[in-house]
Amino acid sequence: MQLAMINDKMLPLDKLDTAYLDRGLYFGDGVYEVVRSYNGKIFALDDHLERFKNSLAGIQIKGIDTEQIRSRIITAFQKAQIPNARIYFHITRGSALRDHNWDDNIKPNFLMTLTDLPDCTPQKLAGIAVSAFPDLRWKKCWIKSLNLLPNILARKDAARKGSDEAILVDENGLITEGASSSFFALFNNTLQTAPLTANILPSITRKFAISSARNLGLSVLEQSLTPAQAVKADELFIAVTTRDIVPAVKFDNIKIANAAPGPVTQKLLVEFANFTQ
Q: Which CATH code is given to the segment(s) 3-116?
């Protein structure tokens, strides 16, 4: 008899709920997105769905109708009635007995959750601390994969150091991005951030942060920098869907400027908010 065991409960394998056979659980074999809403309006849904479609193609999950996903999101959002919501959804390759290979006919699994989005205003007013951590991720970070163990380890290291975010540094000593965010530095009137390559997520918030900077007349330099260069910046900030733009006032316990959110970052916060109206 083939068996399964969940904690101390034993049952025949053919009676096991297929949720326990999800390839996302075994292998992280799936992709995800996080979308947010502002005051009852979903933000940048087209951008997120386009990136989701690219991620699906990147790991060869086929036959997904993104318009159906859009409909599910809108229906659930209207049902939840959460004005400022975090909308998480993922698709895994499907459920099957554990095998590295997969059957091309396997049916993908879809999951979505809608939750209240915490107010991050205090972080924006006071700024946060960040700290460096080695970038241990795979080489296709443009795919928003469920394989997030390196990111989780980085975030835990940051928390142990009293930081709010880990800033990932590659084998060449260059900053790629945050463990769950994009990373930016301001030098005079220039906004600098790493270029979009295979080891960088094409962040939607990054896109709007750059647009905000250009609207303010700032130059944008997409060029990697080192932690040593970052701590000499006039201002630093991160950008992430669930928190927008958040000033970073310490990097590895080194104070940035006067250890308070800088004037340009504060202007960027206002400009970014114009996109969310």
A: 3.30.470.10
